[in-house]
């Protein structure tokens, strides 16, 4: 239980770092720092899968914030960094910020509320967790639509709904990749259609 708590805190705090930073620093600075961190994580993943002793050291030292299956595949943090740099390169800055916050906060809320209050099951998730995800994503979308000069509220709402659906559905691709990319794409298409 303690391990799960540490992992979730790491997810929400670590996952929110770069989108929050993006509100205060220029895009080139953000991309350099995000790119450097992503390169570091990818290099570490290559090293640990090349050397079983490095992998064992990581599992022993960082087991509190790792899922058991991450001993044999890249960590969610690496996927999160890869999707973060992708959305900041491909989409509007505020769309990218919003989509990564959908992941870091929405996925966190879905897990915490779903585990504590989830009664109605949908596949391996819960309706209560998905509603918590949707509520937190809608709140993020509302705030970001007020902050952003380009992200209109209907696009933010569409993004929040799409992020929730991707979190809920049993898609085989890691949701640290799918939630930001899919929701950013939906927000961009909705804004384009409305514009």
Describe the structure.
This protein is an all-alpha fold and 195 residues long. The protein has one domain. 78% of the residues lie in helices and 2% in strands. It has helices at 2-21, 27-50, 52-62, 76-90, 93-117, 127-147, 153-168, 175-194, and strands at residues 121-122, 125-126. A hairpin with a 2-residue loop joins strand 1 and strand 2 (125-126). The longest helix is centred in the middle third of the chain and has 25 residues, at 93-117. The model has no long low-confidence stretch (mean pLDDT 90).
What descriptors fit this protein?
195 residues; mainly alpha; two-stranded antiparallel ribbon; 78% helix; 2% strand
Gyration radius (Cα, Å) is: 17 Å
Q: Main beta sheet, described?
A: 2 strands, antiparallel
Structural class: mainly alpha
- Residue stretches low in confidence (pLDDT < 50, at least 5 long) are none
Mean pLDDT: 90
How much β-strand is present in the residues? under 5%
SS summary, helix count:
8
Order of helices and strands: HHHHHEEHHH
Shape: globular
Helix content: over 70%
Q: Could you give the distance between the termini? A: 47 Å
Q: Work out the number of β strands.
A: 2
Strand arrangement, major sheet: 1-2
User: How many domains make up the 3D coordinates?
Assistant: 1
Write the layout of secondary structure elements.
Layout lengths: L1 H20 L5 H24 L1 H11 L13 H15 L2 H25 L3 E2 L2 E2 H21 L5 H16 L6 H20 L1
Antiparallel strand pairs: 1-2
Helix pairs in contact: 1-4, 1-5, 2-3, 2-4, 4-5, 4-8, 5-6, 5-7, 5-8, 6-7, 7-8
